[in-house]
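Q&A log
Question type: sequence-to-structure
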Amino acid sequence: MAALDVEGVTKCFTPGVRVLDGVTMHVRDGEIACLLGPSGCGKTTLLRIIAGLETPDSGRVLFDGEDVVNLPVYLRRFGFMFQDYALFPHMSVGANVAFGLRMAGWDKGRQQQRVDEMLELVELAGYQRRTVDELSGGEQQRVALARTLAPSPRLLLLDEPLANLDRKLREELVDELRAIIRRVGVTTIFVTHDQSEAFALADHVVVMRAGQVEQDGSPEEVYGRPSNAFVAGFLGFHNLLDGRITPDGLAVDTALGRLQLAAGPAVTLPSRPYSVLIRPDAGELDPRADGATGSVVAGLVVAGSFRGGIYRMRFEPDAPGAPVLQFDIATSGGRPMPKAGERLQLGIQNAGVLLVDRDRAGDEHTGDL
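Response status: OK
Response body:
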């Protein structure tokens, strides 16, 4: 049985405007799940409904088979860590961590023991007497996590836990946060709009848009095979074209011409318009080299920038109606990278050509360049 089942949850704050529209998802016991999507897609509202801070208009929220929709927050025994941490500035670090234990009636001896355990878990042993304003942003985040974990919640809910930290600190803490959750073993759901954060932390990703679930699966599944053009664009894949499967199901016709498909024959799919995703690492500068497999496209390099291990290149195909494409070319090997204004024959590897469903009506999010 799944630790958490959300079944057909709908929520309106304004009559006729659904913030959540029949959301269903399943989270297994001990799993770290992520609600991923752009701002305003409903992910925080869903988290608050699971926590009991909001009530759905319809649908059920079951924890280990029990419908908790009408269960008060304090009886759910779920831990909720807010985006701004909500630490009490007039209390010491130790008193902040002990707050939930004191509310639950723990005696002082047990409180102190548990506070010590939690601060050691988040690598802040010895910080009990410090004040909140003495802490860095990363330390405040750890204290908030320790306070949330102290009462041994049945379910851990995190609302953008790293959003208030600078990028360098977020990257440092993301692995530590996953390790701490793994050590505790608590089922966890967290909200983020950051794709890299979601993939680094989660076992299970739920991509949302406009109050609905667009895709649900492991990070590898979601990244490796986006379900539709919206998900592909949100994950930062820019190379999306209209396409139609050829009668033999082995290729797809696009504005670039006929491209071979990565997954083999697609004859079982309906013969309807699709979107074609060309992965950014599918570009080959030596398309005629031995072992090269794929299509060859002529065009112009319109921009390029060195990114360390890759060279990010924007490429305008000669084919009429084809969009400008973006490719990440590995810089290993010491070969010179093409410059803006240079014409070339670019290979597109078959393995990097995927079919995705054409996007449904809605706001498009194409990610950052």
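Response note: The longest strand covers residues 294-306.
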